[in-house]
Amino acid sequence: MTMRTRLSRFLLAQWLVVVSVVLLLAIVSASASAQQASSPEAPATVIFTLDFPQSDPSHYSIAVDATGHASYECTAKVQEDSEEQAYRAEFTVSAGNRERIFEWTKQAKYFSGKIESGNQKLAFTGAKTLSYQDGQRSLTARYNYSSLEPVQQLTSLFQNIAGTQDYGRRLAYFHRYQKLALDEELKRMEAQAKNNELSEIQGVATVLREIVDDTSVINVVRARAKGLILMGSAAANGH
């Protein structure tokens, strides 16, 4: 075999290796692209966060996505003299409030601009943040007070939802460790619910049902819990 023949065969072998590698990379890239295309895109999500060291909870956030799934996280005390603890709950927002949240977010241009009023004379009521995330956008705006109507509506609704979730947190603790405190807590919750200061009561229905089903709890407390369940169900269904 001549030197030229050996060189030709060597070059051919090298070329075949290069072609094989290129083809393999093309197949891997195509597979990754197909997998990425088939992966479901995360639903659009609106997040409200409040940080207010002088209050309890001192920090909380609520995230609601386009399917209605919601999560609540806070750092709070279970009692005045206790240490702060982290708490998390998941629930489903009613269809009506889910639609309102995303409609008001749209009206607020997805928080793409400044939403803070800039009025320095207003009292500080906590550092608030509204965020919007979807497959194409991730926008965040911070404020103490906003004069924009849709932002005011969102703030009020999220604060009312947070109030409900915080009742759920305390009721779960009292039901387990301090049942005698349940009656006063449920009285306060009833009063705020009747004044439209709470939203998404069905989001804490689990702990309310546990109280209703507990025969070791006095009947008046169980009745209050049952009444709140009915109130939450009616509100969630638009009645």
Largest sheet, in brief, is: 6 strands, antiparallel
Counting helices, strands and paired strands, the structural category is: alpha+beta
Strand order of the largest sheet: 4-3-2-1-5-6
Q: Give the low-confidence spans.
A: 5-28, 31-39
Shape, please?
globular
Order of helices and strands: HEEEEHEEHHHH
Mean pLDDT metric: 86
Number of beta-strand segments:
6
Number of helices, where a helix is a run of at least 4 consecutive DSSP H or I residues: 6
- Strand fraction equals 15-25%
| Rg over alpha carbons | 28 Å
- Helical residue percent band: 40-55%
Terminal residue distance: 94 Å
Give a topology summary.
Layout: H1 3-38, E1 45-51, E2 59-65, E3 69-76, E4 85-92, H2 95-107, E5 127-133, E6 138-143, H3 149-177, H4 182-194, H5 205-212, H6 219-236
Antiparallel strand pairs: 1-2, 1-5, 2-3, 3-4, 5-6
Helix pairs in contact: 2-3, 3-4, 3-5, 4-6, 5-6
Walk me through what this model shows.
The chain is α+β, with helices and mostly antiparallel strands and 239 residues long. The protein has helices at residues 3-38, 95-107, 149-177, 182-194, 205-212, 219-236, and strands at 45-51, 59-65, 69-76, 85-92, 127-133, 138-143. A 6-stranded antiparallel β-sheet has the order 4-3-2-1-5-6, covered by helices on one side. Strand 5 and strand 6 (138-143) form a beta hairpin. Helix 4 runs parallel beside helix 6. The termini are far apart. The relative contact order is 0.11.
Short recap of the structure:
By secondary structure, this protein is an alpha+beta fold. Helix content is 49%, strand content 18%.
